[in-house]
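User: Can you predict the 3D structure for this chain?
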Amino acid sequence: MKRRFNPFKKTYGLDEMEMLSFLGELILFSNLTTDERALFLPHLHKRNYEKDEVIFLRNDPAHALYIVVKGEVRLTIDHEDEVEEITRVDKGSVIGETSILKNKRRFVDAIVTSERATLFVLPQVSVHDIFSSHIKIKVKMLEAVSNLYHDLNQDILKTYQKSEGFFYMSNVYNRK
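Assistant: Here is the predicted structure, written as structure tokens:
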């Protein structure tokens, strides 16, 4: 079937195409079409951070999603007086994905470890505005978060089995 030229189809500039391509590489946006990803562009706010600057802390309300463009961020969790580094993330990493869910809190700290870092901040209110008028986008992104959490749960269970159970798994699954 021959494709017809549509003079009314949205076209994107070079900077927009680079950003849309970048978003397409991220797990939360990878199943969205170019036009669906484009809806987020006006809501992305570039923010520069310095070394040791806090992006968010555990138990903060999850009001924004963060995308690392440049630099490195350390994710930690604290227990009593101990701080454990969970991981370090860099360009192309999404942190704070719980922000696409309503009324959630952060469960880790996110702190810049490189001299400088550039992140895009996507406010939760913007995400939910898009979700309210584009149900397919909502479904695709919630499915991506579900897959992320499924994979994370699998990794936790494998690690638990290998560590010979340093805690009771029933404490995790028997929440009331």
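The first helix runs from residue 14 to 24. The chain has one domain: 14-165.
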